[in-house]
Amino acid sequence: IKDFGAFVEIEEGLNGLLHISEMAWAYVKNPSELVSEGEVLKLRVLEIEPEKKKISLGLKQLLTNPWEDVKKKYPIDSVVEGKITQVTSYGANVELEAGVSGTVHLSEIDWEYVERPSAVFKKYMVLPLKVLKIDEDAHLIFLSRKRTLPNPWEDIDKFYKIDSIVKGKVIRVRDFGAFVKLDKGIEGFVPVSEIDWERIKHPSEKLKKDKEYEFKVIKIDKEKLQLTLSKKRLMPDPWLEIKKKYAVGTLVEGKVVNLTDFGAFVNLEENIDGLVPLSEIS
Question: Where's the S1 motif domain (predicted)?
Answer without folding.
Answer: 1-60, 77-146, 163-232, 249-282
